[in-house]
Design goal:
This protein is mainly α. The chain has one domain. The protein has nine helices and no strands. Helix 1 crosses helix 4 (about 65-80) and helix 4 packs antiparallel against helix 8 (about 160-180). The two termini are about 30 Å apart.
Length: about 200
């Protein structure tokens, strides 16, 4: 099922880039950002184009460090993949499709094209926050916000408290392993990036 890969990528992006707890709210935000990707195949190729993202921008990072970090991220993906059941993945897919349809109904054809072009699959987005769409009216912004809030609440109900706790444990373990690979200066730099991202997400929520 195509939602499987999307869930893994979304969860790991929260694991690596988030500055707080892993919750299904955070996963919901990642799903809402990714919902406009034209296809799963394009999304996966887009992921490869983005490379290591913020980690590649760390000062003085070596190839050996990149390799170690990639191995840590891959292990985390495997752990995350084992958490949701098939039924939960199907439910997330249904929410994602419903949210996309509702947002498409609010936007004009030109705005839908902008949203598609700013999706992770296009390789044109520079942050993981919600993409900028020009020409949005106040009414559209309100509708989009309401759709996003409702979808987030639906996503929040998918995972159990135990599963959320498992994700938090993985997050803590992953962060500790990554910190052990990085220098003190690199850890500080990464934490600043995480904080900036968290601030952007708070403004958009």
């Amino acid at each position: 099922m195509k939602i499987n890969r999307l869930l893994v990528v979304s969860a790991v992006s929260v694991l690596i880039g988030g500055g707080g707890f892993i919750t299904s709210k955070a996963l919901a935000d990642q799903f809402l950002v990714a919902q406009s990707a034209p296809s799963m195949e394009q999304r996966e190729s887009g992921e490869g184009k983005r490379g290591g993202g913020k980690l590649d921008r760390l000062s003085g990072i070596t190839e050996a460090q990149k390799t170690q970090l990639q191995q840590i991220k891959s292990a985390s993906r495997q752990q995350i993949e084992a958490i949701p059941t098939a039924a939960q993945k199907a439910r997330m897919e249904a929410i994602r499709n419903d949210t996309k349809a509702k947002m498409d109904a609010v936007l004009t054809a030109e705005q839908r094209q902008q949203l598609a072009q700013s999706s992770p699959a296009s390789g044109e987005r520079k942050g993981r926050g919600y993409p900028k769409i020009s020409g949005l009216t106040d009414a559209q912004k309100t509708q989009m916000r309401e759709i996003r809030t409702a979808s987030r609440q639906q996503m929040d109900a998918v995972l159990t408290a135990e599963q959320k706790a498992q994700m938090e444990a993985i997050r803590t373990d992953t962060k500790a392993k990554m910190d052990a690979v990085l220098t003190a200066a690199q850890r500080q730099e990464l934490e600043q990036m995480r904080q900036k991202k968290q601030n952007r997400q708070q403004k958009q929520s």
